[in-house]
Design goal:
five-stranded antiparallel beta sheet; two-stranded antiparallel ribbon; globular
Length: 325
């Protein structure tokens, strides 16, 4: 479990084991990085090492509301801010849906996977005015890869549920697989109740979604899919576009948006930050932006909050890491 850093230095210091003086530096580093906003979590046992120094040197613009968490490849978690209470995550759910599908049905480079027949339920749901969908037709046969694209880019709920039924026979059985996968990944504050995320009862935390993002991006097929700006739909002239507008920024390679009135705006993102002649992958999660407003307003706020974090990391991380090398 992480050490929680509160706003009060005195209170937090009193809770630190006196036999671990290195943690005191971790506290100072977290306060420098977190400013006045909420708390920050540092990995247990950091002991004043390289990670604390990296965090202290960044002075990140954490969002003032909701939750956020960051991690850097080959460095570790940079910490988290906000409440640790599980909240609705909307369509971020589809990252786990894709993760489970690809565990059960892996796709190699250049492989489209087996054809999946669109059933009547998915076709009827394509016309739902109350959720995001993709235009599919009953009897249409689309490849597994194409369905993953339709689920992850325009965030099609009907396709997420179709893939769940195809994989497990029913959405209920598939959700059990999702929760089992979450448990294996150590996502202790996460509960999935559907494959699409439309249910407000599907809840998680920024820290848990960060764990999933880092694991999910190890799959080449998922990584290639979430980096796409758009995808064609058979039978339609116009492509469907990725809702993750952060992809327009340099280095961004994914991942997924999710927004609803109860969830607010949510975004999991991954970006490559230059470091000398190499690139280092950075992961971010922002949850609960402008909750209670419209999905569009929440999504815009999540994109803006994530953009500020990404800009700061691109500006400061290479120099900080260089000083720690």
């Amino acid at each position: 479990m992480p050490t929680l850093v509160k706003r009060s230095v005195r209170t937090a210091y009193a809770r630190l084991p006196r036999e671990r003086p290195g943690v005191v530096w971790g506290l100072v580093a977290a306060l420098l990085a977190g400013g006045a906003g909420g708390w920050m979590a540092l990995p247990e046992g950091d002991g004043g090492g390289r990670l604390s120094a990296v965090v202290a040197g960044l002075d990140l613009p954490w969002p003032d509301e909701g939750q956020a968490a960051l991690a850097v490849e080959r460095v570790g978690d940079l910490g988290a801010v906000g409440s640790r209470r599980a909240v609705p995550i909307a369509s971020l759910t589809k990252v786990m849906t894709a993760y489970v599908i690809l565990k059960d049905h892996p796709l190699g480079d250049g492989q489209d996977g087996p054809p999946v027949e669109v059933d009547g339920q998915a076709a009827a749901e394509a016309y739902s005015p109350s959720e995001s969908t993709a235009p599919v037709v009953e009897g249409q046969r689309l490849s597994q890869r194409k369905l993953l694209e339709l689920m992850l880019l325009p965030s099609a709920n009907n396709v997420a549920r179709l893939l769940a039924r195809w994989d497990a026979g029913s959405e209920t059985k598939f959700v059990a697989k999702m929760n089992a996968a979450a448990a294996r990944l150590g996502m202790t504050d996460t509960t999935y109740t559907g494959a699409s995320g439309i249910e407000a009862t599907t809840r998680s935390t920024a820290a848990d979604q960060l764990k999933l993002a880092r694991e999910a991006m190890k799959d080449p097929a998922l990584r290639a899919t979430v980096a796409l700006r758009s995808t064609a739909v058979p039978g339609r002239a116009e492509p469907v576009r990725n809702t993750n507008e952060l992809l327009a920024r340099p280095g961004v390679v994914g991942l997924k948006t999710g927004s609803s009135t109860p969830a607010g705006g949510n975004l999991v993102w991954a970006a490559e930050v230059p470091e000398g002649g190499k690139r280092r992958l950075v992961y971010g999660v922002v949850l609960g932006q402008r909750a209670g407003t419209s999905p569009a307003e929440g999504r815009r706020a999540a994109l803006e909050s994530s953009g500020r974090l990404l800009d700061a990391l691109r500006e400061k991380l290479p120099a900080v890491l260089g000083r720690q090398a």
